[in-house]
Write a sequence for this structure.
């Protein structure tokens, strides 16, 4: 009543954006380069931060050229870090708006928006006797969060990167090797070629006995899932995918954003999230790869196609769709 | 209001070329929106909040005359900033591109008795689409005044200088009533439709909150300064109302601004729409501070051409737009605030009486645009 039409929090945000009870935010405190195109961002999270489990990711909203863009990144700091800071490690991908911004232009002192950490790619409560980490590229990031968090008796890691200097956390990994806490095989794909999954028998003869966490490009994960299934040990393999595999596109249609009152033409291959954002609609978004459910929105009318599977979802009361992996399948109405 | 169409010298192709040139100006700004613009609006919002907070703090001691003066001046400016540079422009969607849910046309609410969503409908959809079309754009006299010769005279208009003055003093209530289309809805006995009742209720709720804040809670918080704080918030609202009313009168009422007939906009092209906005709006010249305090509505012509471009960019756009006016030999109506306010008021007085001579219909022209 004192501050209407604003809320007291609108004023408190001016002086204390990280206080308890505020929308969850963080402040970038430092940016440490890791490789030529990767950097670790140290973030001081707001008081509402509930902490993470090793292997989880966080959705982060960053203002790039004045526009707020949300992405998901794996947390690379251990859960028991003394100063309460968390780190994410980001690899700049070609044309990646957020990743390039974070790696090359992010400045200490900048406020970012955060969500509570989430994700199922985590270690079990009961300590497995033998562990295998199978990673490639930036797929090492959630695994680094695990390596820094818990010591296992017997850990093997097979990591692929184009060249030695592209291996993120290389020094730290080699320190672990020297301390006999880790057995590491680096595959340098520029010279060795892409890892043939069948080589596992030779590299890690007891791989099938190991609880395995794999993270990397879709090709590696698809091959791993097939390989583990063939040997009947699929339940020992845990995977984390960073990008959706788009398989299906069809005819688009006219998309109406009824709450905003906008109607635009959409093709059958562009995610509705992108269509909405282009049209200036306030679309919630998150990982942009169909895993975090940060973008779910009611489908009021019409039909949409899941770009990963080709599956068609038709409007019914209560139907929610993930706009980041759904495209128009004919005219549809999205409640935004 | 001239009988001669000031756009008669333009061919249909020229009008479309003009439209393309304006589109190019717009595209240039859209492509270059970025970090600086975002920092600008955040800075303005933050400054407004701090100014309001400090002013209200000072008013807790408003029994002390210098505190009253300072607090009232600060609060008046804060309210003007909230309504003009911040509220009006955010509600236009000028900052939606930032995708910040806290600074977005669909979530913003302002220090004003008209709820944001109702204002958006009557202002963004009706006024900005049908700018200066007689019988379609109710901003032409707000339904209580005659501001164009082509509007039919009624004895009620004899009192319009007074109506306009009262409207200026209580402008936010005038706008709330206007957004509710109160006159039409009461007149046509639509007051019982559930839709109208829901909207009236929303306005009632908003008025209650605003009044409670300004005239009960803050005076009470001031304790012994109850009455002086009450007077201060009343004065700040009055100043804000008269200021915004004056600025807005300058947008479409000064002499030289054209109005249009209903049939003239049938099948209007993009170029013709642009041309109507150019001829139907007037600017205010002045310092940067003046532009800021008018919420950049001093660049009314540019705002009407591109209602959703960020307000901090209108000044640079104005240079290019003005060059187009010259190129196409059109009159760019502009002047200092006192001159434009005087011009608008003179019209209000003059048109309170019936037209002097019977008006001759303007002959039909090649293009659809017919100046009234």
């Amino acid at each position: 009543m004192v501050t209407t039409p604003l809320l007291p929090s609108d004023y408190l945000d001016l002086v204390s954006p990280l206080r308890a009870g505020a929308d969850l935010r963080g402040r970038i405190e430092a940016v440490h380069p890791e490789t030529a195109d990767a950097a670790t961002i140290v973030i001081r999270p707001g008081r509402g931060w509930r902490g993470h489990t090793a292997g989880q990711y966080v959705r982060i909203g960053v203002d790039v050229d004045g526009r707020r863009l949300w992405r998901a990144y794996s947390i690379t700091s251990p859960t028991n870090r003394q100063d309460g800071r968390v780190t994410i490690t980001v690899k700049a991908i070609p044309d990646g708006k957020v990743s390039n911004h974070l790696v090359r232009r992010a400045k200490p002192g900048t406020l970012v928006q955060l969500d509570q950490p989430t994700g199922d790619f985590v270690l079990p409560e009961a300590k497995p006797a033998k562990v295998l980490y199978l990673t490639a590229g930036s797929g090492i990031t959630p695994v680094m969060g695990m390596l820094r968090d818990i010591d296992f008796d017997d850990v093997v890691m097979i990591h692929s990167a184009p060249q030695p200097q592209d291996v993120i956390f290389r020094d730290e990994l080699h320190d672990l090797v020297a301390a006999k806490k880790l057995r590491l095989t680096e595959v340098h794909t520029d010279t060795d070629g892409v890892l043939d999954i069948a080589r596992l028998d030779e590299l890690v003869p007891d791989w099938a006995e190991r609880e395995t966490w794999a993270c990397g490009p879709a090709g590696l994960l698809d091959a791993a899932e097939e390989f583990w299934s063939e040997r009947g040990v699929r339940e020992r393999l845990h995977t984390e995918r960073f990008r959706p595999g788009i398989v299906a596109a069809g005819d688009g249609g006219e998309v109406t954003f009824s709450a905003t009152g906008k109607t635009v033409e959409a093709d059958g291959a562009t995610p509705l999230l992108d269509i909405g954002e282009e049209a200036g609609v306030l679309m919630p978004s998150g990982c942009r790869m169909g895993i975090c459910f940060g973008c779910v929105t009611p489908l009021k009318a019409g039909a949409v196609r899941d770009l990963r599977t080709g599956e068609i979802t038709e409007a019914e009361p209560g139907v929610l769709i993930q706009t980041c992996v759904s495209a128009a399948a004919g005219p549809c109405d999205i409640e935004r | 209001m001239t009988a001669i169409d000031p756009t008669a010298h333009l061919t249909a192709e020229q009008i479309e070329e003009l439209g393309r040139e304006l589109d190019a100006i717009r595209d240039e700004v859209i492509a270059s929106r970025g970090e600086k613009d975002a920092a600008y609006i955040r800075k303005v919002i933050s400054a407004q909040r701090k100014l309001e907070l400090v002013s209200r703090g000072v008013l807790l001691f408003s029994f002390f005359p210098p505190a009253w003066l300072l607090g009232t001046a600060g609060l008046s400016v804060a309210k003007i900033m909230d309504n003009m540079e911040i509220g009006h422009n955010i509600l236009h969607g000028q900052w939606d591109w930032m995708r910040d849910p806290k600074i977005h046309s669909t979530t913003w609410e302002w220090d004003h008795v008209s709820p944001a969503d109702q204002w958006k409908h009557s202002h963004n959809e009706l006024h900005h689409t049908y700018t200066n079309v007689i019988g379609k754009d109710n901003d032409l006299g707000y339904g209580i005044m005659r501001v164009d010769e082509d509007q039919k005279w009624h004895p009620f208009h004899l009192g319009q200088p007074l109506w306009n003055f009262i409207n200026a003093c209580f402008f936010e209530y005038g706008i709330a009533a206007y957004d509710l289309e109160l006159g039409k809805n009461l007149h046509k006995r639509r007051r019982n439709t559930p839709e109208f009742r829901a909207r009236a209720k929303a306005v009632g709720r908003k008025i209650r909150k605003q009044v409670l804040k300004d005239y009960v809670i803050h005076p009470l918080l001031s304790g012994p300064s109850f009455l002086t704080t009450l007077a201060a918030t009343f004065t700040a609202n009055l100043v804000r109302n008269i200021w915004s009313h004056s600025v807005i009168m300058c947008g479409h009422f000064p002499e030289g601004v054209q109005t249009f007939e209903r049939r003239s906009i049938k099948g209007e092209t993009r170029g013709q729409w642009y041309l109507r906005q150019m001829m139907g709006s007037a600017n205010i010249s002045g310092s940067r501070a003046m532009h800021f305090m008018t919420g950049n509505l001093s660049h009314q012509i540019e705002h009407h051409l591109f209602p959703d471009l960020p307000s901090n960019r209108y000044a640079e756009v104005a240079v290019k737009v003005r060059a187009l006016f010259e190129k196409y030999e059109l009159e760019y109506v502009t002047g200092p605030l006192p001159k434009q306010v005087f011009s608008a008021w003179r019209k209000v007085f003059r048109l309170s009486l019936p037209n002097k001579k019977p008006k001759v219909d303007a002959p039909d022209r090649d293009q659809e645009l017919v100046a009234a």
